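Extended Data, record diguanylate cyclase
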Amino acid sequence: MKTVPLRWLIVIPFVVLAVVLGAAMYLLSSVTIADIADKIGKQYIKEVEGRIYDRVQDFVTPFISIAEVNLAAFTHRPELLNDLPAVAGRFYEQALPYSQMTFISVATADGRYVNSTQSPMKSGQHNIAANFVYEPFVMAGFEYDPKTFIGPKIEADPTFLYDPRERPFYRRAVNNKQITWGNIEPYYGFPTLGIDLSAPIYDENGTLLGVTATSIALVELDKYLASLELVEGAYLFLAENNGDLIATSGQGALYQTENGVITRSNLNDHSNKAFQLASQSAKEGMQEIAVEGENYLYYQRSIDLKYGKQWQIGILIPRSYQQGFLDSYTQSVIVITLLLFICIAGVGSLVAWYIGKPIHRLSQAAKGNNLKSIQQLPTAMSGVREINALSQGLSSMADNLSDIMQNLEDKVAERTSYLQGENEHLLESALTDELTGLYNRRGFNQAIEEALVYSQEKGQQLTFVLCDIDHFKRVNDEFGHSVGDLALVSVAMNLKHHVRFASDIVARYGGEEFALVFLNADIEQVLLRLNRIRRGFAQNPVVKGEHITMSFGVVHVCEGEVISMEALIEQADKKLYQAKNTGRDQIIL
């Protein structure tokens, strides 16, 4: 490298460096800050949009799932339609966890109708309504009774003629021959919107048996949008594809009633000009719109629900929100740039560090634990050849070490992921019976311990049932072990069909022995379910026209009673033994 006079090193490089670096710092920072401000606005919109999207999906999913579950139940077990009071109890239990679920209903092809109903504005007030109890085709409201399901008539509720086959939900489902969405409409007598989902029920011959439906109040979505903390001047809306509003972040009405005619509020004629302009864009994604001199960043996204329903999310935030960030950072850049000029001028007076500075820098990089600090060293650090050679050698060594470490990290990550998957598979296999898909003995022991602790902490009742297939050895001896396996699978399906999926426990306890745990259920309800299980065996042969029976040993733990798992199993085993020795095919409590 060509040497230069010391005074040139003092005057020329630092003057040029001060001017060029200061100008570059200011220009680069201005562009970068503008880009950051824009990204902040877009990131804010994406975060809000994600929260709304997740909320809508979480809100609608139970509503759709209940309709699907009921349709499957009635399709595969049409005899349920002959016992509508029991169906009313089923609907009542389904609706309890959901404050927004207003109706769960079924209408038969002969015009009978029953539902579990809840006020769309006062969640938690569940009742039963039916048109066949008081008088045929006369709708009346009834209290819920945990034993008979349809309790005393609610005298305060008016009665009226009601044939569900003439209602829109019934006709829509029958005409479409599939699960069908209803229109979003206000509830009669309540200041909120709702929507229903109905499904036709057919038997195996294609004969129409009726229609099951669910209805949900949308007031919770409107409250959710209004509760979100937004930047000043921002707007949110949830709308149908035709622009009719479902919910907004504002306080405006979602529909108007004039002379008995109901009109939904629409983006196209909304009093908010921003909403009107948003309705003119059918394009999804991010875009800019101007409203009365104010620029907005507008984002639109569709929410695809099942069975062909689609809603739109709209988010508008003013550009002034981003401009505030830009102004604040611009002032900071000016101050930093001035300080940079001062610092560079000061460095000029320290030219004596010309030799010591690069050496010191190399030393610090070598002592540090960060390879990147070495890799970022410039190729030419000084006019001294040896210093440059040392710098290049360190950088090359750091590059090699970085490659080695990256390869090691990739291999460790790959191996860790593989082991984690294997562990999860082994855990699932260890807790599940391979043949029936139920808990095995180990999985059951873990589940019942948790259930006992939970029921005792919550002061809830618990019922433990130990049951055994009668004369199972005869099935294996006469038909072979493959048929015996089919019998075990059939028993498992029957048991699972008559328990509550969310709270009860079903397990293959060992061989032909099974265990059931009913949480927070009256003993009468448990016995009713056990008798239904017995009827299921009587009605449906397991294989080759052969029916099986089971014996049941039942232990009921009352509220507040404390018992160990070992004592519970021991008592149930004794009662099962008693059932076996007193004739089989019976329940011993």
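Summary. Residues 441-588 form a domain with the Alpha-Beta Plaits fold (CATH 3.30.70.270).
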